[in-house]
Amino acid sequence: MNSATQLSLRLTGKQHSRIRDHLYPGDGFEAVALLLCGHRNGSARTALTVHEVFEIPHESCVRSEDRVQWPMELAVPLLEKAMGKGLSIVKVHSHPGGYSEFSPVDDLSDQELFESLKSWTGDLPNGSLVMLPDGVMFGRVSSNAGFQNLHRISVAGDRIRVFGIEEAIVREQELRTAQAFGAGTVSLLRRLKIGVVGCSGTGSWVCELLGRHGVGELVFVDPDVVELKNLNRIPNATREDALAGVSKVEVQKRAVEAMGFSTLVSTYASDLMNVEVVEALADCDIVFGCMDSHDGRDLLNRIAVFYNIPYFDIGVSLHSDGEGGVTHVVGRVNYLQPDGSSLLSRKHVSAELIDAQSCLRRNPDEYEARRGEGYVANAHVESPAVAGVNSLYASLAVNECLARLHGYRDDDRHDEICICQVNTYMQTIRHELPCPRLAKRAGRGDCLPLLDIPQLAELCVT
């Protein structure tokens, strides 16, 4: 592993709570658990993604206030699973006294553990974490040089927590944001990498708002170019862009770079069914979905699940008679946690339209034949879109993200916000049940085929 590579670990809110409950049972003694982890092996970033939590029973350990000893044989079933699936092992233990560094006892224990794990996991990185009483975590992984510290540990829960971010000096262009949310949140935003998929109606406003908040890195994904019909709703797009057929992602990159926040912007004029795009999004800390298509939204949901990434999805529905009669204006912001409910289990995407739109993208001729025979649904979904409506829901999504990062709300226990502009109401909804199709894949990470999708079977994970 390159020592210059940024190392991180990602876990879900449910996993974090489960670990904390086990490590801090209330008796003041250290405890230990093991984590089975997938990987995201990027060129500049490597992430360990927690897939399973395995608690070492308290009664099987020798525990005291400053150390814990546990029998390695208890971990054999987990080690066999790690070896069979190419996964890593991470040990996590508690420091009940709040000691915020690895102790000399920890150093010796980790050296022995990492050496023992090599026979099971080979050259894969294994890790060691400490959780403090307030839930804060720090950690390191094995390397050729001994130990390499994790740059950050992130938790995708009701709150989005990121440990390991040092507070930075607030720049002049960030003063107003710092006055609202504090220097800590400004520093965090500057070090986040956020993906936006769909850079048209709602997505263009999300790009604008994230850029204005000084996010450090942005990834923009959209296959389309600007057209004259887009100019009523895409900020920063011009008539010249439409006539020249400039890609939507390049328009947003140009605008963000002109803001002067030194934001790094990567663009992909492509749809999601592309290995390079999937890998770029897998490197992100947060993703926003601003798409109409059911198959695209379902695929982004899948990426977020496999790599333990918080996902904000925006959906807008506007019905009119074409002559000024508006009958329906509803927008929803869905927040999706990796091991929770999905857009499919919430019934915001349908399996029928996922299949139809996927068929249309892969093979238009086959789609038309199947549609003519009545085997697939109409995949062409398009509705009116205007700037005032789209910007409202885009702003709602970005503010939802800021609230979960900063933690200023009294209660974050909702997963969906719905605003109806015809009947003028706002509703928050909690979705308790995990998705039976996706939740079990949380933290699986890189695998072949990529995302367990057969269409990507012939493409290798880098």
Could you characterize what this model shows?
This is ThiF family adenylyltransferase. GO terms for molecular function: nucleotidyltransferase activity; tRNA threonylcarbamoyladenosine dehydratase; ubiquitin-like modifier activating enzyme activity. Keywords: Nucleotidyltransferase, Transferase. One of its GO terms (biological process) is cyclic threonylcarbamoyladenosine biosynthetic process. The structure is a single chain. The two termini are 14 Å apart. The longest helix is centred in the C-terminal third of the chain and has 20 residues. The chain has 2 domains: 156 residues, Cytidine Deaminase, domain 2; 282 residues, NAD(P)-binding Rossmann-like Domain (Rossmann fold, 3-Layer(aba) Sandwich), CATH 3.40.50. It has a 9-stranded mixed sheet with strand order 9-8-7-6-2-3-1-10-11. Strands 14-13-12-15-16-17-18-19 form an 8-stranded mixed sheet, with helices on both faces. A two-stranded antiparallel ribbon has the order 4-5. The mean pLDDT is 91. It is of the alpha/beta class and 462 residues long. Helix 9 crosses helix 10. It is built from 12 helices and 19 strands.
